[in-house]
Amino acid sequence: MFHAERFVEKSISILQSEIQGKALIAFSGGVDSTVCAALVNKAVGDQLIAVHVNTGYMRKDEPEQVKQLMRTLGLNYRYINASTEYYQALTGVEDPEKKRKIIGEKFIRIFESVGRKEDIHYLVQGTIAPDWIESGGGLRDTIKSHHNVGGLPKDMKLTLVEPLRDLYKDEVRKVARVLKIPVAERQPFPGPGLAIRIIGEATPERTKVVREACDIVEKEIEHAAAKGLMELPWQYFAVLIPIKTVGVHGDKRAYGNTIAIRAVQSVDAMTCHYSTVPHEVLDTISTKITNTLKKKVNRIVYDVTNKPPGTVEWE
User: Using 50, 70 and 90 to split pLDDT, how confident is the model at 267?
Assistant: First the structure.
């Protein structure tokens, strides 16, 4: 039986002995990195520097929300806008494993640069059990390389610290509640961000499309759940598929992109079932996406795949 209170006490003690000097944490604003930051902040205070890297693949208004969260938690933080660098690094890249590894390595190089400037020797990550299990190694097959595991370069100069490594998502949420962190119930968001919700090349233009679609999906599902029309899914988002189909805009033939809606229920991310979203909610989402993204998107589909055989994210 997992006891969140005991875990917090033990972790703070371990971190105080493990971290001797300045530490940097990769802060995304998600449940895992936020819990991790709060734990380490309790252990070493201002010796921890939280670094949020805007990769250009964040959700709508997310960079500002993350900065506000870091201020709310009282973290010593740095904000780095590296969107241009990431877009350039992923130019022409379509393979999802390559995407994840490029994103992961670039994160580390940015963190190493900050580390050199501020004399930092430790890198703290909010890695949890599903991350390294799915990334493979030893006798385990690689399902998908998580950027914070498979994307770590072998010549990394920083010493890695992962306080949540043996926890599953439901256990991390319990720790968040004990720490009274405002993101305890937030839905997961992948470290590589929208780059893996774009099947194919993650260009700035295609990112804008999926960002707007994701925003509509999130807001409409949250609105429907608040009205009691449905249960709030564990995770819900949009995916841009590299398939164009014929449609109609006004009285004219149109050729537009396809967006897939994904919503699932899960506990620990190891398995999931697709969520039953009412047809009227799907209809509202479909209409809003196609009206907002005219001439770009003309077809919406709903993903009814469980995990296994699928995964939560498409890449």
Answer: confident
Contact 97, 144 (CB under 8 A): yes
Q: Are residues 20 and 121 in the same domain?
A: yes
DSSP letters for 43-99 = HHGGGEEEEEEE-S-PPTTHHHHHHHHHHHTT-EEEEEE-HHHHHHHTTT---HHHH
What gap in Å lies between CA 247 and CA 259, rounded to an integer?
Answer: 13
Model pTM? Answer: 0.84
Give residue-wise pLDDT tens across range 96-144.
999 999 998 999 899 989 999 999 999 999 999 988 686 444 543 544 4
End-to-end C-alpha distance for the chain, whole angstroms: 33
Give the CATH number for residue 37.
3.40.50.620
53 and 91, same domain (yes or no): yes
Q: Three-state DSSP class for 212?
A: helix
**242, amino acid identity:** P
pLDDT in the model for residue 152:
58
Measured CA to CA, the distance from residue 245 to residue 129 in angstroms comes to: 40
**Distance (Å, rounded) from C-alpha 93 to C-alpha 95?**
6
Token representation of residue 89 = 């690094």
Residue 248: both structure tokens together: 């109609």
The parent domain of residue 229 ranges over: 198-302
Distance in angstroms (rounded) separating the CA atoms of residues 302 and 64? 30
Strand partners, 255: 246
Q: Residue for token digits 């890249």?
A: 93
Token pair for 180:
């009274």
Does residue 309 have a cis peptide bond before it, meaning omega lies within 30 degrees of 0?
yes
Q: Which of 271, 262, 272 is nearest to 304 (CA)?
A: 262
Rounded to whole angstroms, how far apart are CA atoms 174 and 288? 35
